[in-house]
Hints:
118 residues
Amino acid sequence: MAAENRGERKIISISSKRQVTIPQRYYELLGFGREAECILRDDGIFIRPVKEMQGEFAEQILEKLIEEGYSGTELLSKFREKSKKIRPAVESLIAEADEIAADGFCIPIDRLFSSEDD
């Protein structure tokens, strides 16, 4: 989102079923699809689009399965099985990174790229 849009505010209503409607402008600007991620932070909720990971690792998964000797319908079945594991694994890594960041753990950039000899 462009810097000029940060902090933009809009009041939205909540239905009796606890549903909210994302304003169309925000929906389009942020690239929402069929899912949104809802994160509880301090005294608020942060809602962001779930980025589709479909296809990002497809080629690597297929190469590995072919190397393992799969083909035909068995290849398709194994591909679907492996593909379903990508999103949970990435979400776990993101959650772990968020925890580390929340704890204030960081390495100064000069130490990150220096060698022991420096």
